[in-house]
Amino acid sequence: MSHSNLSTYEDVVAAAERLRGYAHRTPVMRSRLLDAELGAQLFFKCETLQRIGAFKFRGAFNALSKFDEHQRRAGVVAFSSGNHAQAVALSAQLLGMPATIVMPQDAPPNKIAATRGYGANVVIYDRYTEDREAIGRKLAQEQGMTLIPPYDHPDVIAGQGTAVKELIEEVGELDALFVSLGGGGLLSGSALSARALSPKCKVYGCEPEAGNDGQRSFREGRIIHIETPKTIADGAQTQHLGEHTFPIIRRDVDDVITASDAELVEGMRSFAATMKLMVEPTGCLGLAVARQLKSQLRGQRVGIVISGGNVSLDRFCSLLAGG
Ligand SMILES: *Cc1c(COP(=O)(O)O)cnc(C)c1O
Question: Which candidate among 17, 119, 151, 318 keeps its CA 20 to 30 Å from the CA of 57?
Fold first, then answer.
């Protein structure tokens, strides 16, 4: 594996310039109740309020805005049933290029509709009999489209890093930072910003207990592959870290810690009750892990990235009701 093209903090700075005027500078929220509970000063970076309802707009827009003329004409292809699909579709629409999104036939109808709503061409595949990567590659080859993966790409990583750049620039240096972890685009980009702007800050990746491949990979020093994990954290149902994300995580992250689905539901309840925020399960990973580390956070300045809020009202209610 060659690391010569690993993203750097300079790439995050360049991404922030490209995103200016397109991405929202999301608010940093505080909660006296949660500060009192943890005995710390908590700073929540609210990517639930980012365009498309999650940080993924940052990485997708940064990657697409680097396309040359030829790539813009042919357009972009992505495979995703989640937030990356909408991020690529909206970015392509804003930049005036065609987008094709490959989605499983059992993707939530509202997500397919939202993606089409941004003007993307949605190609449906059968999750059980077809290989989405093969379909994506075929489209890319035959029609000259550029494939943008959800996390394992230097421009995606650099874009995701802009959220924590904004956070630290706004509130100052931190003692600890908690970031949701799926394939590691958000975590690796966040770690680049934290190392540059708050060098002594401890950076924690927070992943669902059922899919602890990131924790095992971090601790064993190699990328571990697992089956698609069963968890309510659908934004983090990844099977492995990426070739581009893993080396940065190994170098710049302090530990990876897991949270149970029950802890994520507690987080959803807390965010709704105390901060009036509707957060999707994956967006609650940071708070859930910070709660576990309460005894060592006493008196500290703690950043928590709330990564997204895309959960239907029905699912939100049924999760809180224990269903
Ligand atoms: C994609 C996603 C994640 C995980 O991000 P990675 O870059 O894959 O680690 C976390 N939270 C939400 C809301 C997401 O959409």
Answer: 318
| Nearest by Cα to 147 from 71, 246, 65, 198 | 71
256-293 pLDDT tens trace:
999 999 999 999 999 999 999 999 999 999 999 999 99
What is the spatial distance between Cα 183 and Cα 240, in angstroms, rounded to a whole number?
Answer: 6
Please spell the DSSP secondary structure of 193-223, one letter per residue.
HHHHH-TT-EEEEEEEGGGTHHHHHHHHTSP
* d(CA 234, ligand 1 centre) in Å: 9
Between the CA of 103 and the centroid of ligand 1 the distance, in Å, is 17
pLDDT at 200 over 90: yes
pTM of the model: 0.96
State yes or no: is 230 an active-site residue: no
Cα–Cα nearest to 196, from 3, 4, 13:
13
Task: Please give the Cα distance from 31 to 271 (Å, whole number).
Answer: 9
- Mutate-to-test residue for ligand 1 from 26, 56, 180, 285, highest number of ligand atoms within 8 A of CB: 180
